[in-house]
Structure prediction request, 221 residues.
Amino acid sequence: KQEVTQIPAALSVPEGENLVLNCSFTDSAIYNLQWFRQDPGKGLTSLLLIQSSQREQTSGRLNASLDKSSGRSTLYIAASQPGDSATYLCAVADNQFYFGTGTSLTVIP
Amino acid sequence: DGGITQSPKYLFRKEGQNVTLSCEQNLNHDAMYWYRQDPGQGLRLIYYSQIVNDFQKGDIAEGYSVSREKKESFPLTVTSAQKNPTAFYLCASSSGRDGELFFGEGSRLTVL
Prediction:
């Protein structure tokens, strides 16, 4: 069964800093990997979807990479802002969707 | 706008009562999912449906039931058999196993 791990569990950075969130998974036979954002008490918002044949995807200040062979993905956030404060989750799709427990990000003004 | 609508947003239930959470999508997705989220834990799959009139148990199906009579709708019933039902419930849909996953805003159930 797929296991998804996110490190660190929590991260606090000053505004303006660039940061990297990590996601690892145990089985490389995936269809895709998706990064989500979750605000307190809300549903998950899709940020980026990387298909298994792709290496990276970009949206604005966000860049996600995928290395299937090593079972790793990173989410790079450039020039962080207080509005980026949220929990970030990654999920991989094989026969089901498997989720990590998330990284709680706080950006300090 | 296309999306997933969950209702109610907040629900209180007395012990021994069944409650039904609604999930409606207008994304024309074949696959729909119900997840449970508890503090400090990842999302856990309750039930999923890949097509109308068919659904499968997920990892924690005991005490829950679903139906999929229409493509747009996938209601979840939390029965009195569910021992610890207080949680945040999330409905999601996708075009398939390899499609992008979209979520509703969630329903928070509290058992009094």
Summary: The CA atoms of residues 37 and 52 of chain B lie 25 Å apart.
